Amino acid sequence: MRTVLIGAVDFNKEHFFGQHFDCVIAVDAGWKTCVDCGVHADVALGDFDSLGYGPSDVPVVRFPSVKDESDMEIALAHAASLGTTEAVIYGAFSGRIDHTLANFQIMERFSRNGMKTVGIGSDFAAVVLAHGANVDQHAPSSLAFCSFDPHVLGGSYAPYFSLFALSGPAKGVSIHGLAYELSDHTLLADYSLGLSNQFCGKEAEVEVGEGVVLALFPLDALSFMRIA
């Protein structure tokens, strides 16, 4: 089951309408984004404090504004309860770096629990890979790209691919087919080794043996990628 969650900021409308989803969740003020862009939401979820009013003409799951979890975290938990195997997140990465970091943390949590999570920014995509102890056996642990001409990539991230360890060292990290390769390497969370690798027109693969990594790359490269 492929579910999309739509937050309130930087909604990539053009990319969204080129995709297919089984369920659309409007997250808090993301409801207004849906209305403004002509997106039909199956459910609206949140405390709606930033929106200032409750959505109408759609099922609503409302939570109090004083709570420990963010609206996006609650929304991903709701998506998991529906049987979601892949969650695609729009409108969650912006100049509010605190919200952006929180959403990366949430992606890590649900990836550890076996859900594929893909974040869509204005011109980049984010994917979390996880493997090893305390990680669900269905968690995505590798991604691959078929060969393509990197000159087709646009935006400020082209032609770069960056990989960061989350929540401590990531062991057994291998990168093949990018400009800079690694084999069975330990990627540390307090070093920037994985920054600004590059696509170079070859088939490419990234995998993690133990731990969690965050991959960031041009949105245009997403159509050439598969997650396993």
Question: Termini distance?
Answer: 15 Å
Percentage of residues assigned to helices: 10-25%
Average pLDDT, to the nearest integer? 93
- The CATH topology of the largest domain corresponds to Rossmann fold
Fourth CATH level, the homologous superfamily of the largest domain: Thiamin pyrophosphokinase, catalytic domain
* String of helices and strands: EHEHEEHEHEEEEEEEEE
Describe the overall structure:
- This protein has 228 residues and is an alpha/beta fold.
- It has two domains: 1-122, Rossmann fold; 129-228, Jelly Rolls (Sandwich).
- It contains four helices and 14 strands.
- Strands 1, 2, 3, 4, 5, 6, 7, 8, 9, 10, 11, 12, 13 and 14 form a 14-stranded mixed β-sheet that branches.
- Helix 1 links the parallel strand 1 (2-6) and strand 2 (23-27).
- The longest helix has 16 residues, at 97-112.
- The mean pLDDT is 93.
In short:
With 228 residues, the chain is of the alpha/beta class.
Helix and strand topology:
Blueprint lengths: L1 E5 L6 H4 L6 E5 L2 H8 L5 E4 L13 E3 L8 H11 L4 E5 L6 H16 L3 E5 L3 E8 L10 E4 L14 E17 L5 E6 L9 E2 L5 E4 L2 E9 L6 E3 L1
Parallel strand pairs: 1-2, 1-5, 2-3, 3-4, 5-6
Antiparallel strand pairs: 6-7, 7-13, 8-12, 8-14, 9-10, 9-11, 9-12, 9-13
